[in-house]
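Chain A, query sequence.
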Amino acid sequence: MRHEDGSPCHCSAQRLLMAAGVLEASYLFADRNEVRIHHDGEVYRLRLTKNGKLILNK
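Chain A, predicted structure.
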């Protein structure tokens, strides 16, 4: 889900994750091919390749 200005609605994502335990990659990536995830004091990069594969790097 998105706000009227087109930005992602994080509260909706949180509800979806709590309900199903699954986030759609298209929601996570939106219009980019990389996201950064902060976990346990480290930043990881989750990248979507041209072939549609996911790669996670520290």
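The CA atoms of residues 38 and 47 lie 14 Å apart. Helices lie at 10-20, 25-29.
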